[in-house]
Amino acid sequence: MTPNEVAALLAYVAELDPRTANSNQDEAGEQLRRWCDLLRDVPATAPDGWDAAAVVRQHVTESPFPILAVDVTRPWIAHRRSLLARHTDPAPPVDPDDVAGWQAAIRAQREAVATGRAAPSASRELTSGAPHAEVAARIAAAGSPLPVGAADALRPYRPAKAAREAATSEGRPDELSVVCPWCRAPVGEQCRRRTNRGPDRAGSWHRRATVHPSRREAAAARLDRKESAA
User: Fold this and answer.
1) Of 5-9, 61-65, 136-140, 195-199, where does mean pLDDT reach its minimum?
2) Where is the composition biased (Basic and acidic residues) (predicted)?
3) How many Cβ atoms sit within 10 Å of the Cβ of residue 17?
């Protein structure tokens, strides 16, 4: 805060809590000097609801003790820590090959957030559940979330999915459409086998190239039930 902002904050403190009012000009000047020294790195206002005046008002409301400068500094430190924790260092408009310039730009971004001059740039969170209605409408209009030809291009890199699609189109049972009764592999995942590493060491799971026979039978029974119901 600037000296003028600190002086305004002290006037607000004296208005809310008359006990802090100074008896003469010398005391007021000394108090202003101390507060300016402690609050020089604290902004008057900052993103995400920081307001030094609100901190003062809360302290006067909740505490029976006269407010000190550190009663404003400490909440700001906690608020700044929260801002920096949500800042994700977005790529600055600098050539990445310019290492010194890139680092300087990143430091400038962090300093702006730490001093309350800029809001943190947080990554967008992934959401669960169904897609947004607008997105679902676009997918329905396109017929597939993948562009035309993309599925064919990806087929060599997704053999399990390609095998499931081929089985469905040919009328054969989709072996991954049921939970495996033997290894309990979930729907859509390959069957697995347990590797035993001895009595004193835990084993590990490995994917099988083929499904267990009981799963193949369960998939065939599921297909028969669907055909009978149809």
Assistant:
1) 195-199
2) 214-230
3) 16
* Between 194 and 1, the higher pLDDT residue: 1
Q: Phi/psi of residue 45, each to 5°?
A: -140, 155
CA 227 – CA 163 distance, rounded (Å): 21
The tens digit of pLDDT for each residue in 71-100 reads 999 999 999 999 888 888 888 888 988 999
Where does the chain have alpha helices with state H?
3-16, 25-39, 52-62, 70-85, 99-114, 133-142, 150-154, 159-170, 213-229
- The rounded distance, in Å, linking the Cα atoms of 56 and 1 is 14
The Cα 88–Cα 84 span in angstroms is 8
Distance (Å, rounded) from C-alpha 19 to C-alpha 33?
A: 19
Judged against a pLDDT cut of 80, whether residue 110 lies above it is answered with yes
Domain residue ranges in the chain: 3-85, 142-229
Q: How far apart are CA 202 and CA 121, in angstroms?
A: 43
Q: What is the dihedral of CA 17, 18, 23, 29, to 10 degrees?
A: 30
pLDDT higher than 80, residue 113: yes
- Tokens 């430190």 found at: 77
| Bridge partners, residue 220, by sequence | none
Cβ 9 vs Cβ 71: under 8 Å: no
Q: State how far Cα 193 lies from the chain centre.
A: 35
